[in-house]
């Protein structure tokens, strides 16, 4: 089944057409035939999603029995200025890159209403790495422009998990590289625990989504700009297949988490950093700090690593690191491929307020001119 605007994309429409048809057939083949689950006795709660790096209101310890947690998410295709003069024809969940982070507890039910407005050009869906069956929900959430669907799944495993768009074939890497990646955090019902099984809480949580973009250039070396997402496809595919990104960024753009958009904290606060990457491996590092507790694989049922300087996030996954800030100042949170951090954009800043502790670090002698 072609989208209503497939004829408008030129080469993109031609490339997408058989994939859209295949995806639609897959959706029909996966139509459930079992009796609906009876969850009528479960309490329902609705959560309003917020744009990263922030996370919607949630409890760290489950307040009672499992619940059905309702979310609503709209797909937005739009142009995004990734850097000065560099524009991405983006595809997003709820208008942000990365998509918003959802938080539930293990054994809760996630109920997502996914909306694909008629103004969009392409089919979209959601593959939840936290879900079981039906291509992570991808086979049951494929929506054309002008359609919406509702998916419910049980969050059976705790941890941080990626979700992304996966409409089929070469559309999958294109949609992911255009920004359609997010994270769901499934907390243990009793909350987080440290390496000795003791309860752990956080004062703040920040979600950092790392993306690599492949923005084409013209023969003069200037970034090209397109009228819509469909027009951008042929050139973008060619750049993507070269596997050399033009940008590697946190939260959708160079400088998205620096300057007046920097993250904030206070001395003595414990901050949970959740970090995702949809495609490529990355190595988060907090300059001047550490990972006190790190769930490198993102799975809270595993014992966390301790005192890491740099940790590893595999492509297609999300991990979490907890750190208690001990000194004030400006911290850089980076991908420790420093070429990607400094030259391509994968840097965030954390402004920390509080009193300096000379016992931890002291400038014994200020820089002075050497006399020969």
UniProtKB/TrEMBL annotation:
Molecular function, one GO term: nitrite reductase (NO-forming) activity
UniProt-annotated binding residues for Cu cation: 124, 129, 164-165, 175, 180, 336
UniProt-listed GO biological process terms: denitrification pathway; nitrate assimilation
Requisite cofactors: Cu(2+); FAD; Cu(+)
GO cellular component terms attached to this protein's record: periplasmic space
Protein EC: 1.7.2.1
Localization in the cell: Periplasm
Cofactor note: Binds 1 Cu(+) ion.
The protein's enzyme class: oxidoreductase
Keywords associated with the record: Copper, FAD, Flavoprotein, Metal-binding, Nitrate assimilation, Oxidoreductase, Periplasm, Repeat, Signal
Keyword check for Oxidoreductase: yes
Pathway: Nitrogen metabolism; nitrate reduction (denitrification); dinitrogen from nitrate: step 2/4
Leader sequence residues: 1-26
Coiled-coil residues: none
Domain Plastocyanin-like: 77-190, 206-355
Keyword Iron listed: no
SUPFAM superfamilies: Cupredoxins
Catalytic activity: nitric oxide + Fe(III)-[cytochrome c] + H2O = Fe(II)-[cytochrome c] + nitrite + 2 H(+)
Entries under InterPro entries matching the protein: Cu-oxidase-like_N, Cu-oxidase_2nd, Cupredoxin, NO2-reductase_Cu, TAT_signal
Quaternary assembly: Homotrimer.
Family membership noted in the UniProt record: Belongs to the multicopper oxidase family.
Protein name: Copper-containing nitrite reductase
């Amino acid at each position: 089944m072609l989208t209503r605007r497939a004829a408008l994309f030129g080469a993109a429409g031609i490339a997408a057409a058989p994939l859209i048809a295949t995806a639609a057939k897959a959706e029909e083949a996966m139509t459930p035939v079992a009796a609906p689950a009876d969850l009528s006795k479960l309490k329902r709660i609705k959560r309003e999603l917020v744009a990263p790096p922030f996370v919607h209101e949630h409890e760290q310890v489950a307040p009672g029995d499992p619940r059905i947690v309702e979310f609503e998410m709209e797909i937005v295709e739009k142009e995004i200025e990734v850097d000065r003069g560099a524009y991405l024809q983006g595809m997003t969940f709820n208008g942000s890159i990365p998509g918003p982070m959802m938080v539930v507890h293990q054994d809760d039910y996630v109920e997502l209403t996914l909306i694909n407005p008629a103004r969009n050009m392409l089919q979209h869906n959601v593959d939840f790495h936290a879900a079981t069956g039906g291509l992570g929900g991808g086979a049951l959430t494929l929506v054309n422009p002008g359609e919406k669907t509702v998916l419910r799944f049980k969050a059976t495993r705790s941890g941080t998990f990626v979700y992304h768009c996966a409409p089929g074939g070469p559309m999958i890497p294109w949609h992911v590289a255009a920004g359609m990646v997010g994270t769901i955090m499934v907390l243990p019902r009793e909350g987080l625990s440290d390496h000795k099984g003791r309860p752990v809480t956080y004062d703040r949580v920040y979600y950092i989504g790392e993306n690599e973009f492949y923005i084409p250039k013209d023969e003069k070396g200037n970034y090209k700009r397109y009228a819509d997402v469909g027009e951008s496809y042929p050139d973008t595919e060619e750049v993507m297949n070269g596997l050399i990104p033009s940008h590697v960024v946190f939260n959708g753009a160079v400088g998205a988490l620096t300057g007046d958009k920097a993250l904030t904290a206070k001395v003595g606060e414990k901050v949970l950093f959740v970090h995702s990457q949809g495609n490529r491996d990355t190595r988060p590092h907090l300059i001047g700090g550490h990972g006190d507790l790190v769930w490198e694989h993102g799975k809270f049922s595993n014992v966390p690593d301790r005192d890491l300087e740099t940790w590893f996030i595999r492509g297609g996954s999300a991990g979490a690191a907890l750190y208690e800030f001990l000194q004030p100042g400006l911290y850089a949170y980076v991908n420790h491929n420093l070429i990607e951090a400094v030259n391509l954009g994968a840097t965030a800043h954390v402004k920390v307020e509080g009193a300096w502790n000379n016992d931890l670090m002291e400038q014994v002698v200020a820089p002075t001119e050497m006399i020969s």
